[in-house]
Amino acid sequence: MTNLTGKVALVTGAASGLGKAAASALAKAGAAVLLTDCDLAGEEAAAGLVAAGLKASFRLHDVTSEADWAAAVAHAVDDFGRLDILVNNAGISGGRHALMEHSLEAWRHTLSINLDGVFLGLRHAGPPIAAAGGGSIINVSSILGKVGMAGAAAYCASKGGVTLLTKAAALEWAPLQIRVNSIHPGFVETPLVANALAASDDGNALRDALITAHPLGRMGLPAEIAAAILFLASDAASFMTGAELVVDGGYTAQ
Ligand SMILES: NC(=O)c1ccc[n+]([C@@H]2O[C@H](COP(=O)([O-])OP(=O)(O)OC[C@H]3O[C@@H](n4cnc5c(N)ncnc54)[C@H](O)[C@@H]3O)[C@@H](O)[C@H]2O)c1
Fold first, then answer.
1. What is the pLDDT of residues 41-63, one digit of tens each?
2. Domain-by-domain residue ranges, the chain?
3. 155 is catalytic
4. In which region does residue 151 sit, left (phi positive, over 0), alpha (psi from -120 to 50) or beta (all else)?
5. Which member of 58, 69, 155, 173 is catalytic?
6. Each residue of 186-208: b (16+ CB within 10 Å) or e?
7. Rounded mean pLDDT of 229-234?
8. Which atom belonging to ligand 1 lies closest to the Cα atom of 195?
9. Mean of all residue pLDDT scores within the chain
10. What does the pLDDT look like over 51-97, one tens digit per residue?
11. In sequence order, what are the beta bridge partners of 58?
12. Which of these, 35, 42, 122, 250, has the minimum number of CB atoms within 10 Å of its CB?
């Protein structure tokens, strides 16, 4: 039921971390995948999939740019003939900020990528997915879209926004057979987390604390999140829409 042969997917933020792993999982399941990112390293990720005999291409794409979204969606449809799956994955941590000193500029920067980027993805990918007869959209939120964390106000607000934006879209597009779900990973040591740890005064202690916060006693792996994204993208999740899929080693069960 997770076979995606004949389907076309667009994955944002696919140069690194969870997006790269998701693009690989979708391509291995048979989908043609357009990897997009504002980082050219995505080209290498797509080339690796093509070299393995899978269908993939890459396009530079800033998810805060409406023009880039229009061009990326057109590219997917021109290259592969349709669009069935969107993974709104691109995101940033935004760094740690004490709320009493948080600048409006830093707040808006995080919100523009993590929340506006998802809105623009829905806005631009919705019509071709509807034209294909329906499909699946996976919005990458976070455990921090369900529970708070001190020092991460903008990130939490952006990811909480994604959680409910997902439900509103799911209700609006259920008649079009477009399923829209959010995924809520626990901590995974991608560059996003590694850089945040490196920027912290005591990265090793913070890393230990993060590991301890997951009852399974470790951080997640990109492939474990990608497997859940593949599930949501596929017919195995055909009766799921508006749902929050938590993949967090028990972090939010406490
Ligand atoms: N790693 C974790 O612990 C974790 C946990 C929960 C949720 N998430 C979410 O998963 C998603 C992926 O994170 P990751 O950990 O793989 O991070 P990452 O830094 O490894 O990858 C993020 C990718 O997004 C791209 N990106 C950033 N800004 C962009 C923009 N404006 N336009 C297009 N691309 C842009 C980056 O270039 C990068 O390739 C993010 O939305 C993040 O918030 C991550």
1. 999 999 999 999 999 999 999 99
2. 8-188+222-247
3. yes
4. left
5. 155
6. bbbbbebbeebbeeeeeeeebbe
7. 98
8. 19
9. 97
10. 999 999 999 999 999 999 999 999 999 999 999 999 999 999 999 99
11. 35
12. 250
Residue 201 has pLDDT above 90, yes or no: no
Cβ atoms of 11 and 88 within 8 Å: the answer is no
**Measuring from atom 17 of ligand 1, which residue has the nearest CA?**
192
Radius of gyration of the chain (CA): 17
**Quick one: pLDDT at residue 68?**
98
Q: Which atom of ligand 1 is nearest to the CA of 90?
A: 24
| pLDDT at residue 25 in the model | 98
So what's the pLDDT on residue 108? 98
| pLDDT tops 90 at residue 200 | no
pLDDT (average), residues 230-249: 98
pTM, full prediction: 0.98
Q: Does the Cβ of 90 fall within 6 Å of ligand 1? A: yes
Look up the CATH architecture of domain 8-188+222-247.
Answer: 3-Layer(aba) Sandwich (3.40)
Nearest to 56 by CA among 18, 89, 29: 29
For the stretch 12-39, pLDDT in tens is 999 999 999 999 999 999 999 999 999 9
- If phi over 0 gives left and psi between -120 and 50 gives alpha, with beta otherwise, what is residue 64? alpha
| Cβ of residue 37 lying under 6 Å from some atom of ligand 1 | yes
Counting ligand 1 atoms within 8 A of each CB, the residue from 69, 92, 138, 155 with the most, and so the one to mutate, is: 92
- 160, 139 in Cβ contact below 8 A? no
Alpha carbon of 254 to ligand 1 centroid (Å): 25
Structural contact between residues 247 and 184, judged by C-beta atoms closer than 8 angstroms: yes
